[in-house]
Specification:
Chain lengths: ~425, ~70
């Protein structure tokens, strides 16, 4: 049956969700801080097209999870356990569990830092984030949860008008995309930012979340095309917000020490350039990024736990039937919140390290994904084509190389001088 | 009788599918999935990456310790 343009748009609206949520969810607190640090340290140059490249990588990877979820009707954790056994399954779960919990801590750090711009005490900031998490779950309907979280995630685009308020140098912007110049010198700081920007876009929780959400939403093999549109749209929106953040903080380049900055300090430093309203929007953007990611990441942990423990796991479950699902979800977030409130915790360091750990944990997760998506027995006709495999292979090589580069920068920093850096 | 079925529109079709699909998905998910044996090369790659992750995590913690 031929569908009209209007009904096609309506169908897309109904079927979008997991892709946009996962991409905007990954534009989380540490990610936005990483982009802010990128702009403030290097200005407009190499990192603008590089960040777009990382979102292209994210699309390649996430599209595979859509196909896996739609073809198998199983979450990612469940598939790894069933296909490869508990030994490898537990390895994947340990990576996910540690990564998710550390990331949750950083989300609440971002919320705390963003709200401190308005003089709100840390404990109120953390309680507000947990209250929003509880509120979006109240309906016990996946659809309502998804639409409410989408609405909140849309606020991530606030970084685009903030960038415009900074009156960017459009010729430098265009030049950066055309030539990837200027390229920063290869040193420890550059490698840390490089890794942090990659970790800001591709992380293990995204694989688990989007596949489980695809299953929970009820997408089937015939909906894969819409899942792709959803993921592409999400990648485009998230890339726009990421570029907006780099452009917004570019005027600070070479004037501040970006690596030691928190969200509120970025907002304060930007205030003379974009005004109090712009700075407040920047701080609110950080709060939103932290809260939305707190929702999606704690949900990802709950899905994975339910799949592995074979307990009911769906956002459609009433509280009584989904006790363990909701308990894991709330407990993870509450424990992370409690840690954020520990006095004297090195918050900025935790934020930087978490993105690095995400990049390091990604190659093994991608190999499982690659093996599953090429498994004809479970994928049937939607098995990965050769071009998708080549791209996925390139992503694994790039991520591993970035990790090795980071290792070299720490263990043998003198090696960069040999390569022409500092 | 056949005329009666010809008049089933998109809305009705959507309603029927929305009622059927969740059940179909539950059945699909409940179907046991056989274990797949990993080949030598795949096992070697997974172990190599496991060693890589553990080693790199030690590097991260070493950096954390020395830059405190």
């Amino acid at each position: 049956m031929k569908r009209g343009f209007g009904s096609r748009i309506w169908l897309i609206w109904l079927l979008i969700g997991p892709g946009i949520l996962v991409m905007l969810g990954e534009n989380d607190g540490p990610s936005m801080l990483s982009y802010a640090a990128t702009g403030a340290k290097f200005g407009l140059g190499f990192f603008l097209p590089f960040v777009v490249l990382t979102f292209a990588m994210a699309f390649v990877v996430q599209e595979m999870t859509v196909r896996l979820g739609a073809a198998t009707h199983r979450g990612h954790a469940s598939l790894i356990f069933e296909r490869f056994g508990p030994f490898w399954g537990w390895f994947a779960m340990i990576d996910l569990g540690i990564g998710n919990f550390l990331t949750l801590i950083t989300e609440l750090i971002a919320v705390r830092a963003g709200m401190s711009f308005f003089g709100i005490p840390p404990w109120i900031s953390v309680l507000t984030a947990l209250a929003v998490l509880g509120a979006v779950l109240l309906s016990h309907r996946y659809w309502t949860w998804e639409r409410t979280t989408l609405l909140a995630a849309a606020f991530n685009l606030v970084f685009v008008p903030v960038a415009l308020m900074a009156h960017p140098d459009w010729s430098a912007f265009g030049h950066a995309f055309a030539t990837w110049q200027p390229v920063p010198s290869l040193d420890k700081d550059t490698v840390l930012i490089l890794l942090s920007d990659i970790g800001a876009t591709v992380t293990p929780w995204m694989l688990f979340f989007q596949q489980s959400a695809t299953v929970d939403k009820g997408l089937t093999a015939k909906d894969i095309h819409f899942g792709r549109i959803d993921t592409l749209l999400g990648a485009g929106l998230a890339a726009a917000a990421a570029l907006g953040t780099i452009v917004a903080t570019a005027p600070l380049a070479h004037h501040i020490s970006a690596s030691s900055f928190q969200a509120a300090q970025f907002a304060q430093a930007l205030q003379p350039i974009i005004g109090h309203f712009g700075a407040a929007l920047f701080a609110l953007g950080m709060v939103e990024a932290g809260i939305v990611a707190c929702i999606t990441i704690s949900t990802s942990s709950a899905y994975a736990f339910g799949e592995v423990a074979r307990k009911p796991h769906s956002l459609n479950l009433p509280a009584k039937e989904g006790k363990s699902f909701y308990a894991v979800l709330y407990t993870c977030a509450a424990a992370a919140g409690a840690i954020v409130l520990i006095p004297g915790l090195p918050l900025v360091f935790v934020v930087l390290v978490v993105n690095v750990i995400a990049v390091l944990a990604m190659p093994p997760a991608l190999v499982f994904l690659y093996l599953l998506v090429n498994d004809k027995d479970i994928m049937g006709d939607v098995k990965s084509p050769r071009w998708a495999n080549l791209l996925a292979g390139a992503v694994v090589v790039l991520l591993t190389a970035a990790g090795v580069l980071y290792g070299v920068s720490v263990v043998a920093p003198g090696a960069f001088a040999w390569l022409g850096g500092h | 009788m056949s005329e009666k079925y010809e008049h089933v529109g998109e809305a009705e079709e959507g309603f029927v599918l929305s009622a059927l699909e969740p059940d179909q998905l539950v059945r699909a998910a409940n179907k046991a999935m056989p274990r797949r044996q990993l080949r030598g090369g795949e096992l070697a790659l997974l172990w190599a990456l496991r060693v890589y992750v553990v080693f790199m995590l030690m590097v991260v913690f070493w950096q954390a310790w020395t830059t405190r």
